[in-house]
Design goal:
Blueprint (H helix, E strand, L loop, with lengths): L2 E5 L2 E4 L4 E8 L6 E8 L6 E7 L5 E3 L7 E6 L4 E6 L8 E9 L6 E2 L3 E6 L1
Parallel strand pairs: 2-11
Antiparallel strand pairs: 1-3, 3-8, 4-5, 4-9, 5-6, 7-8, 9-10, 9-11
């Protein structure tokens, strides 16, 4: 069974940077797509970025383009989300998620809080 554990959240000033990590375990991920989502208070969970495990193809929400970078380290079974130029509106709980190719995101981590002070 796939398990995802996020880390790296915290409090940062606007304009600062954070790197989130997602440690994945439970199987090999060669046919998986890994993603980051976020949920702000009172709002629905929204897509942030995704990466295919094997080929490294990435996709981003418009709000993340140019500021966030998703990557993966196959040797460490870890996915990262580098977040630069953070804004107050980036404040949310960030979740790591996994899906098989052609499927929907169905495995989720517990989330990590990111708070950006203005």
């Amino acid at each position: 069974q796939v398990q995802l554990v996020e880390s790296g959240g915290g409090l940062v000033q606007a304009g600062g940077s954070l790197r989130l990590s997602c440690a994945a375990s439970g199987r090999t991920f060669s046919s998986y797509v890994m993603g980051w989502f976020r949920q702000a208070p009172g709002k629905e969970r929204e897509f942030v970025a995704a990466i295919s495990w094997t080929g490294g193809t990435t996709s981003y929400a418009d709000s993340a383009k140019g500021r966030f970078t998703i990557s993966r380290d196959k040797a460490k079974n870890t996915v990262y989300l580098q977040m630069n130029s953070l804004k107050f509106e980036d404040t949310a709980v960030y979740y790591c998620a996994a899906r098989v190719l052609g499927g929907s995101f169905g495995t989720w981590g517990q989330g990590t809080q990111v708070t950006v002070s203005s």
